[in-house]
Design brief:
Pfam families: DinB. Belongs to the DinB family. There is one protein chain. It is built from six helices and no strands. With 151 residues, the protein is mostly helical. The chain has one domain: Four Helix Bundle (Hemerythrin (Met), subunit A), CATH 1.20.120.
C-alpha cells in the first residue's frame, strides 16, 4: 500500500461512499444531539465513543508532528468519564472534522517513505499506525450505529 491509497481510504471512510455503508460524516450528521448520552448497560455513550475516536486521531497527528502524546489505554485521556449532552454535538463534530483536515494536510506533506519509518517511541511503522486509525474509526463507527439504532 502506498501513502496515496491510505489517504484515499481515510477520506473514503470519513466522507466518501465506503462499501460497509455510510461514512463517518454521514453517521455523525444523522445522530440526533440527545443521543450523545445514549449507551447500553455500563458501556460507553455515543459521545464518549466519538471523543475516544478524536483522542486517537490526535495521537496520530501528534506522532506525525513530533509531539509525543501519550494515551493510557483505558485511562482518562483514552475514554472520557463525563457524559456528553445535546449541547456538545457541535463541538464534537467540529473537532472530528478538524482532525480529518489536519491528517490530510500532514499526510500530503509526506511521500511513501513515511510508511516505512518507525513511529517515535514505538515499534510499529507509520503504515501500521495509519492503517490502524482507519480500522479504529470503522470499528467504533459500527458501535455508534448499533447504539443509534438500538431501542
Amino acid at each position: 500500500m502506498n501513502l496515496r491509497e491510505i489517504i484515499d481510504q481515510l477520506n473514503e471512510v470519513y466522507d466518501g461512499e465506503p462499501w460497509f455503508g455510510n461514512s463517518i460524516s454521514t453517521y455523525l450528521q444523522e445522530i440526533e444531539p440527545e443521543l450523545l448520552s445514549k449507551h447500553l448497560g455500563t458501556g460507553h455513550s455515543i459521545g464518549q465513543i466519538i471523543s475516544h475516536m478524536i483522542a486517537w486521531r490526535e495521537y496520530v497527528i501528534g506522532k506525525l508532528t513530533g509531539v509525543d502524546l501519550k494515551i493510557e489505554v483505558g485511562g482518562e485521556n483514552d475514554w472520557e468519564s463525563r457524559q456528553f449532552e445535546a449541547a456538545d454535538k457541535t463541538e464534537l463534530y467540529s473537532k472530528f472534522k478538524s482532525t480529518q483536515k489536519r491528517l490530510n494536510a500532514l499526510l500530503s506533506e509526506h511521500t511513501d517513505e513515511l510508511l516505512g519509518k518507525t513511529v517515535p517511541n514505538h515499534t510499529i511503522t507509520f503504515e501500521k499506525l495509519l492503517c490502524g486509525i482507519i480500522q479504529h474509526d470503522i470499528y467504533h463507527l459500527g458501535q455508534i450505529y448499533l447504539l443509534k439504532s438500538s431501542k
